[in-house]
Amino acid sequence: MTTTLERGYDNFDESFEEFKSASELTKKEKAQKLISQVDILSKTREGLKYLYNKSLEMEAEGFFGDTAWNDPEKLAPALVKGTLTAGSPGASYEIMSELRMLAHSKADVHNGTKISRKDAEAYLEEVLVHNLEFAFQDLTEETRTVMNPQEVKRAFNLFSFLVAETGLHGIKDKLAEEIQLICEQRPVVTRKAREIIHMVNSKMELDPENEADKRLLYYVHAVNSPTELAKQNPDPEAYAEALKKLDSRELLEEAETLAAPMRATGLATPFIASMLLHLAAVKPDLIPKALLLNKRGQAEWSKHEELIIKLIGEVVSIDSFQCIYGLARVLEKSLLSRNAVKASLNNLRMISINPQVEKRILKCQTKPRKTVTAKQYLIAATLRVLGQPLGIGQGNNSTCQSARGISMWSQHSPAKLINMIITVAAQNNLILRFENVDLESNKLTKGLVDKLDYNLDAVSAVLVPHLDKIYNEMMRRASGRGEDPHKWVNPALYGHWIHIGFASAYSYLTNAIQDFKGFVRLFYAALHPEYNGGREVVYPNPLGIFVTSRAGAMIGFHAVSLLHVGKDDDGVMRAYFLNPNNEGRQDWGQGIRPSVYGHGEKHGVSSLPFHQFAARVYAFHFNSLETKAHLDSVPEEEIEKVEKLARESWGKSYVWSELKKQW
């Protein structure tokens, strides 16, 4: 009996033979039939391998004739992503073109085509540089919006195949920068950085004398061999045994050396887990050194040593170690000195987890270990979320509102967050109140997400399905009032930190942009310290923004939190904000590219010059009793600068009304 894959090969071969024997009149029709077979085979790794082996023959038979891919010398690596996101048939031609170029890059001799082996290699390196999100399987907001799951799967398959066949030798500088900027954002989920580092370590030969290689080696050693003792004992259990042979001075030196790369990168290792467990048993007074705690963290250790040792013993293991960085940050924020937080953590330690919730927790682990329970994973994730509130991401889910909420509660109401975790983990249910009505998640219809993507931390995997349904129900109840429902939903969902005043440039009634100049004036008067009387942002302000493509075209709506407004070291007034879509670096067109490092950003924060940020905002909250007194202080030229950027980008998708609003 032939397998499904073998039938696919047979169908392809039959279509290819028909294509080869077709006349000029029927060639186009046969090409369409052949491309449909390419579409089917490209969904599997085995199918891609089969297509790769056929690619040069297809090229020689004129498969790319009369298409944009006909001349390999004219191919533009920067255009590959756009074609893949556009779907079939273009995406299928693109896949075959990349496989054809891969075959040219491996050809032993020049095979008569215009492209040389060296040029094909250089082309593929550029393609990988421009498509790291496919190579590392972590999509941007823009790509998630325009690609369906099948298209994403094909793109992931293609780039997984390309990386496996070529390695990443030609893009070392880019990769070093990529790892650095991921780590600077201190994500709670460190999978992406670790996968890149693993790929570099397994597929690249690195020369410590080469500058780019040296940068990559720093991260490889930080994860795999952070000390000489770890290098000599790469198995964490063997390393734990080696620790027993060290005297007090050697143990202190090893602990501090081990902790340095973790604190510099945010990446913990199994070796640090072995160290902490060893110190907790024989020399707990060295634990602050093993975490490289600052003075505030050291003081917290002194006050709560007993609880910290219990947490280390119950949660930390060589299979559950990333929480160690989160624990260090929790101590440096003095969270255990808040009685409500301390009590809530103790309560979390005692719960029994609902079986359905347990499945979700284990599902979000890359390789769940039988030695680690769901409760351990959950407590570990709670420490990470509490310690790194700006590192929370939404995964490949349209749940930016939920991720924004978890981040906000972690920063400003950590005990509330822990108690929500306890309730949902134990009951697999959640109740929040909206306009005097209790909304119980288990009694609601589905939310915005049909099927949760589990590239999440365990806290998000527990909470998001319930928060998403409650948010969706709040939006349903607040709709039809002639204004943006977020005016009522945000304060109800997030809490009393949200200002009651609300402004939106987008009119739900007319699907138009109304009085944008007045909107920008209000935004500046509320949040720009040079025009609002010098007032600072105190609590995260939930804003709605227009997400735009590299060309500045409208993609959709997105939820972010404005955290701070201030000048960077160059004197540029910047907006600092949380973007919960896993990656704070974006290209929104018009030279608007949020930065995550180098302009005074804290870990996990993105920033833009204030006027560029304002040009993408469509809704925000403000203090309605104080802001209006500052409206006249905002210069007209500043408003016009923002309006120009808006009109020439997302504004092209809307009708603009100059009718004045009562702000």
Give a written overview of the molecule.
The mean pLDDT is 91. It is globular, with a radius of gyration of 27 Å. A hairpin with a 2-residue loop joins strand 1 and strand 2 (437-440). By secondary structure, the chain is α+β, with helices and mostly antiparallel strands. The chain contains 30 helices and eleven strands.
Short description:
The chain is of the alpha+beta class and 663 residues long. It is built from 30 helices and eleven strands. Helices cover 53% and strands 9% of the residues.
End-to-end separation in angstroms reads 72 Å
Oligomeric state of the chains in view:
single chain
Gyration radius from CA atoms, angstroms = 27 Å
Class from secondary-structure proportions: alpha+beta
Taken from the alpha-carbon principal axes, the silhouette is: globular
For the largest beta-sheet, the strand count, sense and barrel status come to: 6 strands, antiparallel
Low-confidence parts? none
Mean pLDDT: 91
